[in-house]
Amino acid sequence: MNCRHCNASLTNTFLDLGFAPPSNAYLEARDLQSPEKYFPLKVMVCDKCWLVQTLDYANAEDLFQRDYAYFSSTSSSFLNHASKYCENIIKALELTKNSFVIEVASNDGYLLKNFVKEEIPCLGVEPTHSTADEAEKIGIPVLREFFGEEIGNQIVVNHQKADLIIGNNVFAHVPDINDFVKALKIILSKDGVVTIEFPHLLNLIKNTLFDTIYHEHFSYLSLTAVDKIFRANGLTVFDVEEFPIHGGSLRYYAQKSSTGLYSISQNVKRVLNRERESGMETLSYYELFQKQAEMIKEEFLAFLLEQKNSGKSVVGYGAAAKGNTMLNFCEVKGGLVNFIVDRNMAKQGKYAPGSQIPIVDEGFLREKKPDFVVIFPWNIVEEIKTQLNYVREWGCKFVI
Fold first, then answer.
1. pLDDT digits (tens, 9 = 90+) for 346-398
2. Per DSSP, what are the bridge partners of residue 39?
3. What does the buried/exposed string (b/e) look like for 332-370 if buried means 16 or more CB atoms within 10 Å of the residue's CB?
4. Which of 25, 267, 307, 376 is at a distance of 20 to 30 A from 275, taking alpha carbons?
5. Bridge partners of residue 88, in order along the sequence
6. Segment holding 38, helix H or strand E
7. Could you tell me where the beta strands, DSSP code E, fall in 9-49?
8. pTM of the model
9. Residues 6+ apart with CB under 8 A from 379
């Protein structure tokens, strides 16, 4: 396979997590008697442009199906993050009823509803029907397509060019990353702004966040790589912000290279320098990650086996993609984790892919009174601890 951006041959392995089903391919009871689809989960690093990326085994249509079960509105902290962003960007760009906003991967309308509230025209682009249905219920127009150059041209014909394009936690999900950026340029107005937000590769490596790696993420992104990708496709990153969300994320602000109004901020230079000084443009920087992930695997399994042998019960909270990566890499089954609680009703009554651990509603916690709750979506751990504070009444402990 060649690099998704620069087409250089990929020969350097960053991480090999073995074989796993797609992390959001939740199972019905009837599916338990049939074989699941497993794909290799192997991540490479390009030594030319430094894009970290999965090897191709599954296509986007296999991963993002009609009944895709991830709903952004499930997390109150993420809703607050989106609301604050909208408030700030509307003021900064002076958006009005005459402006036009597009969000790529608009999910269930968690973000665009803030523009609807302010009567700012907007459009969501979202290929998964389950989430698009929810967005349309609250008055958000949705184009149900995978975003790319062809769809970008359709948007320009049927709507207008955008003053603001938003892409939160979607850039990593893009199989053809150059096509995606070309499409952004097509639908962006002359003086428009693109904001793209996703977890920072620097933090992923620093904190050994290997559970954020799954098939639905085709790329793991640094500013070093993104700056190259954008420039090659006619856009320039002119500012960047850092946030603690999702283990440490970056929000990029970009404009058309030929017509943009903004000068490049010191923030861009600062992050690029930090990445360079950390060694992100050297192969040695990526070589120890596999060993670190395997150490965590061994520790997690040892913990689960110790509790089982002691007669203690362990359950999970949050049937998130992170948890499914963790469970499948560690080869954990229902005998070690009894069930997983999730607030998302679309997941309740189903089973986690691979591990086939049942997903239940919160009532099971009060009924079964487990000894330990493993919090899989650690990125919202404080929110979950507050929500489940009552489990301490019977001496239950949280595990992260």
1. 899 999 999 999 999 999 999 999 999 999 999 899 999 999 999 999 999 99
2. 20
3. beeebbbbbbbbbebbbebbbbbbebbbbeeebbeeeeb
4. 376
5. none
6. none
7. 12-20, 39-45
8. 0.90
9. 245, 246, 247, 322
